[in-house]
Amino acid sequence: EPEVTQTPSHQVTQMGQEVILRCVPISNHLYFYWYRQILGQKVEFLVSFYNNEISEKSEIFDDQFSVERPDGSNFTLKIRSTKLEDSAMYFCASNGGAGETQYFGPGTRLLVL
Amino acid sequence: QKEVEQNSGPLSVPEGAIASLNCTYSDRGSQSFFWYRQYSGKSPELIMSIYSNGDKEDGRFTAQLNKASQYVSLLIRDSQPSDSATYLCAVNKLNRDDKIIFGKGTRLHILP
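Above: the input entities. Below: the structure tokens describing the complete assembly.
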């Protein structure tokens, strides 16, 4: 069964460093998303991406964040200068159409020291 | 007002009994409703999706939607220890952005 994959599974970085989180969505899906979940809190929407552009971004997704689909398979989230409060699980998701089920990847646990 | 509200629990249910999980949402424009299961440290896993009023059954799971009351529920019959997890209620509005709004989740503990 097709699944969303994410790398790395864990990332430890120093405050102020740049990190890139990678995702490979399900191959025939058209919509891509990033969510994050701070430990003990709810899953929060960060950004949606369709047709090679951002569809919507939340207030969390400030200028330090960017997304890119550099080729036909990868979807990346870049945090330019990490802060302590960026420590969280980051989930990539994809679906084939509006309103359809979003399938989540296993997540990347980011720890900013 | 929180967009999606759930009782955080924990909800303790004896093995073999019915677990009942509830959720309310604030935006009447919501059109798609989902229940995800999340084990500790893992990603959300879809259990059920429901789009119209009424009941939808899939195996031991039944989702119920009442748009007039802005209420979604999930029933788990014949609860098993492996059902112990956090259950996330989620909604979206089918706008261009298609983002999902999650509740904080209800922790379910099945007692052997």
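Note for the figure: The CA atoms of residues 33 and 48 of chain A lie 4 Å apart.
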